Predict the 3D structure of the following.
Amino acid sequence: MKNSNLKKSLLWVLVIAVVIGLTVTGELYGSRIDNTTPPTETRTAEDITAEEAFTLIQANQQNPEFVIIDVRTLDEFAQGHIENAINIDYYSDTFSDETEALDKNKTYLIYCRSGARSSQALALIAVQNFTKVYNISGGINAWQAAGLPVLE
């Protein structure tokens, strides 16, 4: 019987020691956490429809912080593009450098012919820590199929 009580007492001492140890460790660790760090910015990188893109463009016509990027080749761009779009060729050796040089805090709308290249560009641009980037699903093909305007 004494042996059983001794085991129970030792078990309780061990449990209390572990609880105290975890509490002290947590307090010490918690005191090193910097709670003054502001939360990280919300980042957006998403696909939108041609119609949603058109609405976004209309809402940002006078906004210098909104940029439209056509990631097709220069020849494709010359055949027709969305008004006010700039051309940064995804296949160019300098594509990554050109996008890296852009202001990451602006809002970007990107597109290509069918959505494949611009989806890849979206992934790259997201890694480059841009704040807001939208990709037109289906590219300029979807844009034209929706009857939206193209400059030639």
Q: What stands out?
A: The chain has two domains: 1-37, 44-145. Residues 27-39 have pLDDT under 50 and may be disordered. The chain is about 45% helix and 15% strand.
